[in-house]
Write a structure and sequence with these properties.
Helix content is 1%, strand content 52%. The strands form 15 sheets. The protein has a 5-stranded mixed sheet with strand order 1-24-23-22-21. A 4-stranded antiparallel sheet has the order 4-3-2-25, with no helix packed on it. A 4-stranded antiparallel sheet has the order 5-6-7-8, with no helix packed on it. It folds into 2 domains: 282 residues, TolB, C-terminal domain (Neuraminidase); 318 residues, Neuraminidase (6 Propeller). It contains 1 helix and 56 strands. It starts with a strand and ends with a strand. The protein has 605 residues and is an all-beta fold. Strand 19 and strand 20 form a beta hairpin.
């Protein structure tokens, strides 16, 4: 049974601080409409020209659409909603269905040349050059991944059903995932919605690209078209079920369509006026800025800390993932001066290592353990138990003690004058070809004033490594990770609170997906998870660019609809006043397998 709720002006906003754009066709012509509350709307174009198929960037600052006197004289334009500046990207012709990728820096679209509609894209920093990615079959409705390296689109072959094609531009591989038209990609890039005509009915279908399954999520004799997703995973689409041939905008919540409850809400409707192709931005009140890149060879899994106006980066892994020759380990140290926005080299840590973290007290920085090269073992690696201290005034290192156990791939969190070491493992092989190591559930506590260690009676509820942690209001929060074992681990979706005052753990709402090597931090009443890696198949994993937020007041995780500059894991987060810095990491960008040197500044306003 299907339930429709008409909400009108009393509708509570789908997604605060997001915009929705769509095509409005009515007595005033064909125009771009925009809504900031998902119930009322305004036209943001005027005049007698056509204004078709708008798209909006993830930050809500720019829209792209086709405009012209008619079908053969359309040009693709990008409009900055703040400055009102309009950038014309193409010559007049038949161009449709623009969609943003790469955080609004690339626009995909369908463009007709010599009678064939092809999918192409233009990089806005090099506007004027169109790169076509499809061949001689008619192609429409591109839905690109944020990377711009994969795209879903509609392909029309002669005398054949319309195909929904998933194209990998790096591997030059394609997969037909369904038959229909107008595909759309969810913000987490897992689900693909499209419309298809089955048994005489046009309905919406959703394909899960991890599970390889398809669900029919609308059932009506009317026409259900042009699906899209908001950041909550809710499905937004159009239908003429209220007025034959006239389309309104509908919503199904994630819970409704994923469980096939078919509980629908009417968002925007007006007698005699049709609304098509809704597209929704991410959260607008977040700002990401690219800062001066890290100097020297790119690295991941380094130690980092913000101390007295400087961000210190120490050690790390240089080179391809899961390869550990001697040259992949470094002790190199650099410092970023926040005031002058410049990087400088500092004295290297004596032990070349990665997979460790830093703490600070007074003029000193402390480096705890790490993962290092060892020629005498098989494999040729080990974990360290060394504590080394750096003097920020003299630019010198010294060894100040040993830890209760060898440890790497763990977290280090300072609460007051004590430093808590949690999780991780001793990777040192116990015998030849031992890659499983020894995972730790002991919690070691270092006193910054006495340099003495204590071991808590309380233990980590479940052993894990390659996770992230942060401190908030005197408590420690643990995010993701991988479980025990080097060859048979699983990804963790655990989000756990530890209270040092009572030495107790508390399970919080699970992460949206199991992940390892995410980066995490907190601002105000929100926690943020950046990137990481998740499982896409039995033996397939991929890095992600997603920025998820956790609301401590509501105890909920949601996708922000915003993205990092790269798909990556093993990045590090530091607090920068009311903002966060996300540094480095490892990525497969452009078919690569190497660390990245990017430094992103993330703020909430």
């Amino acid at each position: 049974m299907r339930l429709i709720i008409v909400l009108g002006l009393l509708f509570i906003s789908l997604s605060s601080h997001s915009k929705m754009v769509f095509l409005v066709e009515g007595p005033l012509g064909k125009h771009v409409g925009m809504s900031q509350d998902q119930s009322s709307y305004q036209l943001i174009t005027s005049g007698e020209k056509w204004h078709l198929y708008p798209s909006i960037s993830s930050n809500g600052e720019r829209i792209a659409y086709a405009t012209g006197e008619g079908a053969d004289s359309l040009v693709l334009v990008v409009k900055n909603l703040k400055s009102r500046e309009i950038q014309v990207l193409t010559e007049p012709g038949f161009v449709l269905q623009p969609m943003f990728a790469q955080n609004g820096n690339r626009v995909f679209f369908s463009h007709q040349e010599f009678g064939i509609n092809r999918i192409g894209y233009i990089d806005l920093i090099n506007a004027g050059v169109t790169h076509y990615i499809t061949g001689d079959d008619q192609s429409f409705f591109p839905a690109p991944f944020q990377s711009g390296e994969m795209v879903v689109y509609q392909r029309n072959k002669k005398n054949a059903p319309r195909e929904i094609v998933l194209l990998d531009l790096i591997e030059n591989k394609e997969e037909i995932i369904g038959f229909g038209m107008a595909p759309a990609l969810s913000k987490d890039e897992r689900h693909i919605a499209y419309t298809s005509k089955v048994d005489g009915n046009w309905d919406i279908y959703v394909y899960d690209r991890f599970e390889k399954t398809t669900k029919r999520v609308t059932e009506d004799a009317a026409h259900d078209f042009s699906p899209s997703f908001d950041r909550n995973g809710d499905l937004i689409y159009t239908s003429d079920r209220l007025e034959n041939g006239v389309f309104s905008i509908y919503k199904q919540s994630l819970n409704s369509w994923s469980s096939q409850k078919l509980k629908e809400e009417v968002l925007i409707t007006k007698t005699g006026t049709s609304f098509y192709a809704p597209r929704i931005s991410g959260v607008e009140n977040y700002q990401t800025t690219q800062m001066p890149v890290m100097t020297g060879e790119a690295r991941s899994s380094f130690g980092t800390i913000n101390h007295k106006g400087k961000i210190y980066v120490v050690g790390g892994h240089q080179g391809a993932e899961h390869t550990y020759p001697p040259e992949s380990f470094t002790g190199r140290m650099t410092a970023y001066d926040i005031a002058s926005q410049t990087w400088t080299n500092k004295a290297a840590r004596p032990h070349k290592a990665h997979g460790y973290q830093l703490s600070s007290h007074g003029k000193y920085l402390y480096a705890f353990g790490g993962f290092a090269y060892e020629a005498s073992t098989s494999p040729k690696w080990k974990s360290l138990d060394i504590v080394e201290r750096y003097n920020t005034e003299t630019d010198t290192w010294e060894e100040v003690g040993t830890m209760p156990r060898r440890r790497s791939s763990n977290v280090v969190v300072k609460v007051g004058l004590k430093v808590y070491l949690m999780g991780g493992w001793d990777a040192t092989p116990k015998f030849d070809n031992d890659i499983d190591g020894t995972f730790h559930d002991e919690i070691d506590v270092f006193d910054l004033t006495t340099h003495k260690w204590s071991v808590l009676e309380t233990k980590l509820p479940k052993k894990r490594r390659a996770f992230s942690a942060f401190e908030r209001q005197g408590k420690v929060y643990l995010v993701g990770g991988i479980s025990e074992g080097g060859s048979h681990f699983s990804l963790s979706d655990a989000f756990t609170e530890f209270d040092p005052a009572t030495n107790t753990f508390k399970d919080l709402p699970k992460l949206p997906f199991g992940t390892f090597a995410p980066a995490a931090g907190t601002l105000g009443d929100k926690a943020f998870m950046f990137g990481g890696m998740f499982k896409t198949g039995a033996f397939n994993y991929e890095y992600v660019p997603h920025i998820y937020e956790y609301d401590f007041k509501k105890s909920t995780w949601t996708h922000s609809g915003r993205y990092l500059n790269e798909y990556k894991g093993f990045s590090q987060v530091v607090e920068m006043g009311a903002c966060l810095g996300i540094l480095g990491g490892h990525s497969y960008k452009n078919g690569s397998d190497k660390p990245v040197d990017t430094f992103e500044h993330f703020c909430s306003f």
